[in-house]
Amino acid sequence: MKRSTLLTAAFLLSLTPLGAEDPTPAGAISYFDSGCPEGWERYEPAAGRTVVPVSGDSSIARQVGTPLAEGERPQHSHDGEVSLMLDGSRIRQYEPWSSTFEIANVPLRRIDLNTSIADTSSELPVAKLETCIKREQPQGEAPAGMVFFFADLVCPTGWSRFEEAEGRILAGADQTPGAFGASRALSDGEQRQHSHLIGGPAELETIELTVWSGCNTCTTRWVLEEFYQYRGQARQTDSGLPYRQLLACSKDAPSGPQISRAVHGADFAERPLAPGQHATLFGAELGPMEGAGATLDATGEVSRTVAGVRVLVDEVEAPLFFVRQDQINFQVPFEVDGRESIRIRVIRDEVAGPEFEAALAPVAPALFAWGVDLSQAIAVYADGSLNGEDQPAAPGDALVFYATGGGQTAPPGRTAAPAEQPFPTPLADIELWIGGEQAILDYAGAAPGFVGLLQINARMPAVSGKVRVILRAGENESIAETYIYGRP
């Protein structure tokens, strides 16, 4: 194989996608402004209700009040008692046998009346959002401090109960987050009672009033039909705000390197890994901010420590091809062959993160690809150039493909060791299908000088246009849709 071909392949294999999507744990309940996204569905119990973090453990998903109808604002009313304070200068004495006259300096008198305040809106500002619940499993790591609701009695692993918000209606913070308003939170199912002071001017019709005016007997007086000032206190009632009680959980701050996903190193699919193959970890705090590539140790093998980072696979140190704070590319050690699952742990600067369990299979074939959508299979001509739409392959042209996941080899695979003669070949039968035709293989074995790579030298069959390429190892085949271009 020419050196130019090796350099081209090495460059293309270093291209990796970034990050993962939607780290929200399954069962989380949140709000969205444009409908529920993929992997979420409408959470009907919260329709027409606000959400209040539950107080206590026995009332998860308690419904309080009647849900608001479309566009409805919560209404409430009050009964109350008011007192009219009458100024003596506005009271006149009436005697049937005499004329009416003002009485000066009569002491203030109070009239107590029953009254009511009609139904009125609480005038709370409302933003209508879609309430959705997450159904799919998370992909990626949620930021520390993120808060979600859960219709469950306990928070998921890595999340803690957010006690500061319990019993409180949540509101957006314009400056500093924190509790405010009433110091006592709502208890389970409570509709907090409140009252109002009432007062102001009132226009009364003429009424009869008995007052003491300094004489020896009580006399009948008349209150004039005028405006008077009143004050009072409404009887207690609730605002009628319906809500649903859910558990509020906050994402714990990570401790050590956090693995969120372990995927295939060629197609980045979440599926069982195979011994000896390239694999990729996604997560947080996995390595330095700037990426660091592979190095060779004193024995000529790929180093198992890069930038202070180590990866243990069932306690076997794995060779590292690339490390960065959100991603690690590594080789699954051959030493785990024959197991059904593996435990992966990242250690950075001697601080170990939690273990991550991944499934293991004898083979997991996948072709390396490139391009924006990673659908263009890496197919290299003898001169080092790449197959593409502008350079299709003719029938019989020799092409070199690169893959990983072929499983155990003969002679047995050596972890971290660049392939050298006699080049190991997979124990599983290898087939390559191009455009539905089985290609003739000149070679299917370890890529010379590489670690964990399977090189396949194939002859282009008589197919043309954009055609799919499928790699088979034993009874398994590649699952990603990868293509090359052919011509008559």
| Second CATH tier, the architecture of the domain at 366-486 | Sandwich
* Beta-strand residue percentage: 35-45%
| Poorly predicted parts | 1-20, 87-108, 205-226
Strand count, sense and closure of the main sheet? 8 strands, mixed
Number of strands: 42
Mean pLDDT: 80
Oligomerization state: single chain
Question: What's the overall geometry?
Answer: elongated
Which topology of the domain at 366-486 does CATH recognise? Immunoglobulin-like
Category by helix and strand content:
mainly beta
Total number of helices:
1
- What's the gyration radius in Å? 39 Å
Span from first to last CA? 26 Å
CATH C-level label of the domain at 366-486: Mainly Beta
Helix content: under 10%
Search tags:
5-stranded antiparallel β-sheet, 40% strand, Immunoglobulin-like, disordered N terminus, 8-stranded mixed β-sheet, mainly beta
SSE layout and pairing:
Layout: H1 3-13, E1 28-32, E2 40-42, E3 50-53, E4 63-64, E5 75-86, E6 91-93, E7 101-102, E8 109-121, E9 130-134, E10 147-150, E11 159-161, E12 193-194, E13 197-203, E14 207-211, E15 219-223, E16 227-234, E17 237-238, E18 243-251, E19 258-264, E20 278-284, E21 292-293, E22 309-313, E23 316-317, E24 320-324, E25 327-331, E26 341-348, E27 351-352, E28 356-359, E29 366-367, E30 369-370, E31 376-377, E32 379-380, E33 398-404, E34 409-410, E35 425-426, E36 430-434, E37 437-438, E38 440-446, E39 454-459, E40 465-473, E41 476-477, E42 482-486
Parallel strand pairs: 3-18
Antiparallel strand pairs: 1-9, 1-10, 2-9, 4-18, 5-8, 5-16, 6-7, 6-15, 10-18, 11-18, 12-17, 13-16, 14-15, 19-20, 20-25, 21-24, 22-23, 22-26, 24-25, 26-27, 26-28, 29-33, 30-31, 32-33, 33-39, 34-35, 36-37, 36-40, 38-39, 40-41, 40-42
